[in-house]
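Researcher: For the annotation table, I need structure tokens for Amino acid transporter transmembrane domain-containing protein. Please keep the output clean. Sequence:
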Amino acid sequence: MSNLHDRHLSDRDSYSLADRVEAGKLSDAEIGKPALENGKVVDAVWGTIEGDGPNYRSLVKATVLQLKTQVGLGILGLPTAFNILGLVPGIIVIVAVALIVGWSDYVVGIFKLNHPEVYTVADVGFMLFGVWGREILGFAFWLQIVAVTGASFLSMSVAFNTITEHATCTVVWAILAMVIIAALASIQTLSRISWLGWMGLASIMSSVITLMVALGAADKPSLAPATGDWAIETTIAATPSFIDAINAVCIIIFSYAGTPNYFSIVGEMKEPRDFTKSVIVGQTLMTTVYLIVAAVVYHYAGQYIASPALGTAGHTIKKVCYGLALPGLAAGGLILVHTAAKYVFVRVLRKSIHLSKNTPVHYLVWYACIAVTSILAFIIAEAIPVFNDLLSLVGALLGTLICIQTETYMWVWDNWRAPNRGSIKWYCLMAMNVVFHFIGWFILVSGTYAAIVTINDDSKNGNLSKPFSCADNSGGS
């Protein structure tokens, strides 16, 4: 495998590469580690990394960023998905999505090892489809992250309204969330914000654990009728309409839609060979947590699940849950803003001395990227101010394209003329990727249609607040 990166993967064995990654037998050049030239670190993306600039190849603990990228807003919508689908279908869909997206996550790492010059999905688009591919996939990637950031602002405004009992206009709370997240996201390297990932993960987990315990001990969920007879209704398998079912699937896809961020994570890892291990650990832990939280909350709340789910318990517990979750919501938002801004930052300054040097141009472009990303996310949050509607739309329209179709096509492109072509293993993996690819397209088309229909119905029924409304959004709607 000499000159590993000087020739297309179609002329080499991708499976032996994967085996060597796991065995730790790849050379530094083969795993995309920065080379040393005249005592200076040179990276395929960042160029020369010197002592007077930020070290963009210093990330060690990747698993925590992967978990925080995923475990956040999505987990707050999963109980609603169970309420729509029923317990058993909900579990099946979560496991299926975990396997499909887990494969995509793995492909991201292997593709990066094969092509160290790749930093984002836009670079993949250029490699696979040329200039138009770069612009289309790059825009979809950036828009997805910005939209999810908007959902972070929206959830934080719900939290602030819940804790303060709507002490001021909701738009003010959304602006406050934007300022907090933008300030934290301006930290330049992922290694410096990894500790915030730990804090955010602990925050979200403590809030959902508190919610589960409180629901188990409470007399009734907060949305249950205050007077009269009521009963929690749960089903093994529900019979939702197609629109409701596909929206629930898209909410679950949203909870796993952090795959595009993995390009940035592996691109800043000090040891890229460890990426596959971190994906396996992260995906296993994440899916376990998702199944437990969704099943427990659905069991104790049934049809009385709020959106986001943290509002499901009683009045006081709701405040406690949101108070515990606030740091986690902020941490998730800052990673998203950081990733989206850095995509634009690298596009603007790539192959420039300003990319990895602390020059005035470096700082001006970086802070401008943070500001623009945050403002646009704020606008999206205020334009679609219903949590589940926003989650399902983002999951369908952008989540599948960037988290399923792109990665499956990457694998096919890299392995079409692999040396083991024609073997049983090759045919099985090729068939699996093709099936995953078309599943993604089906969900994209049907899910986007379902999300638009739902948003339109909510607007007609008065369930969708007006854009930039000061109205309280903490009522569980």
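Researcher: And a one-line annotation?
Model: DSSP finds 15 helices and three strands in the chain.
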